[in-house]
Design a protein that fits this description.
Length: about 325
């Protein structure tokens, strides 16, 4: 049995060296995303039965169909919108993701970004490096007493809500499946999206990307927001129309944005403009917008690292490997496909 590991960085490579050898199983590793591997280099492994990937790989129907023996995909992430689930269902391919590895990790990161934005920590530090001190321009705001709208109260959103509540914030929440226990403990009050748009001083996005919430934050919804609102997105880039957000940041309608994810983020994450070749015009347009967004002083953009703590990475790798070993041993695994 061949198992293809792609998006293999140094920590993943080191981890795989510690994994006990399994009789009859060969691990093949690639540092690139699966869709970026040269055909000649990848084709000898089209007989692989298992693929292990990270969010950078785009596993579409055309690519997956080249693996006729594929039986399982192990995503080393919670998100799986980079995998063609319809194709996997048609072919009976199991798709196992990792849940619960970074709940507090991502929530802590989101609060860290929020504090940087609201207290202008990064801005003041940059100026000081150049000998500039401007106390008046670097004035911030307190979190205490502010209204925070939390969109998505799954594992990460729940922790984020509790953390901002501890700062003295009033927390409004929206979720298709409200967590009654979270409301009962006094952490948040569930409401509708319109109320969150209207009343929130800060909005935190913690929900998965779906067809229904694509560009949830767009030019029209931004008009409904309070002037001077702050937006933090550590969930999925597809939730925000970055072109509309860019305009709102420039105009001041949105006071600040903390973004660990971006729609069409591939060019920035890979630091390679060649990725844009042969892409559609939306890809090229939003890639250019993203480049401009990064330069704004009131935007903090990080390269999809909210999950990236020592502890969380170890949990990801251990859980992903357990999924693979269980599958090999015939143990039923939970599949999102």
């Amino acid at each position: 049995m061949q198992i293809v590991f792609c998006d293999v960085d140094e920590k993943t490579s080191d981890f795989l060296k510690t994994v006990e050898k399994i009789d009859g199983v060969e691990f093949i590793t690639f540092p690139q995303s699966l869709n970026e591997i040269d055909e000649k280099e990848l084709s000898p492994y089209y007989g692989a039965e298992i693929i292990s990937t990270f969010v950078y790989s785009r596993l579409g129907r055309d690519l997956l169909s080249k693996f006729p023996n594929l039986k399982m995909i192990s995503t080393r992430s919670t998100g799986y919108n980079n995998v063609d689930l319809d194709y996997c269902r048609e072919k009976g391919i199991k798709v196992a993701n990792v849940v619960g590895y970074g709940e507090i990790t991502v929530a802590e990161f989101a609060v860290g970004v929020l504090l940087n934005l609201t207290r202008k920590i990064r801005t003041a530090q940059r100026k000081l490096k150049h000998g500039i001190v401007n106390v008046e321009k670097d004035i911030g705001i307190d979190l205490d007493g502010k209204t925070v709208g939390v969109i998505g109260t799954g594992a990460i959103g729940r922790h984020f809500a509790r953390l901002v509540k501890a700062f003295g914030c009033k927390v409004l929440a929206y979720d298709l499946y409200p967590n009654q226990a979270l409301a009962d403990e006094g952490t948040c009050t569930y409401t509708d999206l319109e109320t969150i748009y209207k009343e929130s001083d800060i909005i935190g996005l913690n929900c998965p990307a779906t067809k229904e919430n694509y560009h949830l934050i767009n030019a029209e919804t931004i008009k409904k927001l309070k002037d001077g609102v702050y937006i933090v997105n550590t969930a999925r880039g597809e939730l925000i129309d970055t072109a509309a957000l860019y305009d709102a940041l420039v105009s001041g309608k949105v006071a600040g944005a903390g973004l660990d994810v971006l729609d069409y983020e591939d060019v920035i994450l890979k630091n390679d403009i060649d990725i844009a070749k042969n892409k559609d015009k939306d890809f090229v347009f939003y890639s250019l917008v993203n480049q401009k967004l990064v330069q704004l002083e009131n935007a903090i953009v990080t390269p999809h690292i909210a999950f990236n703590s020592v502890e969380a990475n170890l949990r990801i790798l251990n859980t992903s490997m357990k999924h693979i070993i269980d599958f090999i041993n015939g143990i039923d695994i939970k599949s999102v496909a």
